[in-house]
Amino acid sequence: MNRKKIIDAALGNIKADLVIKNTVVIDVLSHTYKKGDVAVCDGIIVGVGEYEGIEEIDAEGAYTAPGLIDTHIHIESTMLTPSEFAEVILTKGVTTVFADPHEIANVCGSVGLEFMLEDAKNTPLDIKFMLPSCVPATPFDNNGCTLSSDDLARLYSTEKFYGLAEMMNYPGVLTKDEEVLKKLDICRFIDGHAPLLNGKQLNAYSASGVRNDHECSTVEEALEKISAGMDIFIREGTGARNLEVLVKAVNPYNLRHFTFCTDDKEAGEIIEEGTITNCIKKAVEYGLDPLDAYTIATINAANIYSLENVGAVAPGYVADLIITKELTQATPDYVFKKGKLVAKNGEALFEIKKADNSSVIGTVKTGPINYKKFTKKFNSDNPVIRITLGSLITELAKYSSNENLSLCVNMERHHATGNTGVCYVSGFKMGNGAVAQTIGHDCHNITAVGSDAVSISTAIKALGKNGGIAVVNGGEVTAFMELKVAGLMSDKPAKTVAKEYKKIISEVKKVCPYGSNTLMMILSFISLTVIPHIKLTDRGLFDVDGFKFFGE
Fold it and tell me: How many CB atoms neighbour CB 550 within 10 A?
């Protein structure tokens, strides 16, 4: 930093490097709108007022706001590699993300983490990688790799990770599991994941050092967690959509404790509606003041994570900026990162450099696939998983017949053990077909749902050694999307990924009347053993509340 130059530019003694003229600043510090010019020098905002610049952009009365921040996302869930993700997300005004790469870690371990770091490092996007805390999510899961507390300590010492990612194993915290407690000692920042936790258990979880949660689904839950010392990340993704409910919990007194996050969102939706811009738009539609929405999306996130001089349009702050004609615009007109123009009118203005992915391909190892493994005789006494659109919480149900129910399968795919869990699930109503994928949070074994065992077998076989998503209709594979990188991400451009996934959804709808992006994302979570109440793993049905398998 050339401090003398910055002072001279702020005083108006010299021209600033860049001046945004005729703009209305969204001032999240004083919670007001301010007319003036925004001057930038050496990537730092030097003043708001009347300035001249070497380069000038006439905003023509449009708004200038801080760059947006997503406080919790799994890049793998976009099905894009970090470099491709950066190219599309910067056009949507997001300049900083906190990413938890536990999806690829569950498949490839530290090798997967190194790929993510390498693929991200040459992009302008500021990706703060958090250190995956639960690989696997619980001791009951079978995944590709395990990261112990010693592994995490070693990785954290490289200074490549910002903090500890979501501590999903809240039962391990509450039971004082030694390995879990060692993980909590490693990092300053500890992200949370504790759906429906309350009372003394919530107190214990918060007292352990966990400072936030993105799993709230009711106003009461959010308010109790704030009172317990936690910050609330309002989530609006593809499968889980909590914003409409949770904005009702925001008031002037607790505003500072809220941020926005997407958690899991597919590429097509990001291209169409953005991520944090979508949160702002919806929050305003649901009655939140735009200034509050921008505060939540910027300075709150920066303060919660102690980012220095980030999140506001003010002297001394990093010049991460967006210019937008409308407060609720999905795609800003201009996006700046550290004072450099990186996107304009939805087009990225930088080239990406991809990392070598040879270490994270060919990850699907199932052994022989026989449809007989996927059969299950219906019994009215057997537990059934009931899903609800828009929620990752699944309920235990019983049915007198299997009419309108579908077969659901979870098959181990990392070590060719042949482990296969089978149950019935409601909410899909599959016709003569099936869908199978190598996405199954967080162990990412093969997850499939279908009308019959033969269709499921055909879909699983179509996944091949690299994995992806396959749809079967009438015994034929009608769509296949290869996810070459760890069976989770495509190595193709974002627009191609979005187009291929749109084809998948189109074919899913032909065999499932409720087929949608949301339903497919929920299918991805049907095996996650840390979200209530009943899940299916390769070892069978799991009772999340009792933290044990059914029948034990």
Answer: 14
The C-alpha atoms of residue 71 and residue 126 are separated, in whole angstroms, by 12
Q: Tell me the pLDDT tens digit for each residue of 65-98.
A: 999 999 999 999 999 999 999 999 999 999 999 9
Helices within 402-512 (DSSP H only): 453-461, 494-511
* pTM of the entire predicted model: 0.95
Question: Tokens at residue 294, please?
Answer: 């921008």
What does the alpha-carbon distance between residue 214 and residue 232 come to, in Å, rounded to a whole number?
A: 6
| Tokens 């044990």 belong to residue | 548
How many residues does the structure list for the chain?
552
Residues 272 and 209 in one domain: yes
317 lies in some domain: no
Strands (E) located in 247-355 = 258-261, 321-324, 334-337, 340-344, 347-348
552 has a pLDDT exceeding 70: no
Measured from the Cβ of residue 551, the count of other Cβ atoms closer than 10 Å reads 8
| CB of 33 closer than 8 Å to CB of 27 | yes
The 10 Å Cβ neighbour count of residue 340 is: 15
8 A C-beta contact, residue 368 and residue 518: no
Q: CATH number of the domain at 103, please.
A: 3.20.20.140
pLDDT in tens, 164-222: 999 999 999 999 999 999 999 999 999 999 999 999 999 999 999 999 999 999 999 99
pLDDT band at 391 (very low <50, low <70, confident <90, very high): confident
Q: Specify whether 281 is located in the same domain as 371.
A: no
Report the b/e string of 192-217 with b at 16+ CB within 10 A: bbbbbbeeeebebbbebbbbbbbbbb
Q: Is the distance from CB of 262 to CB of 496 less than 8 angstroms?
A: no
Residue 184 to residue 164: CA distance in whole angstroms = 8
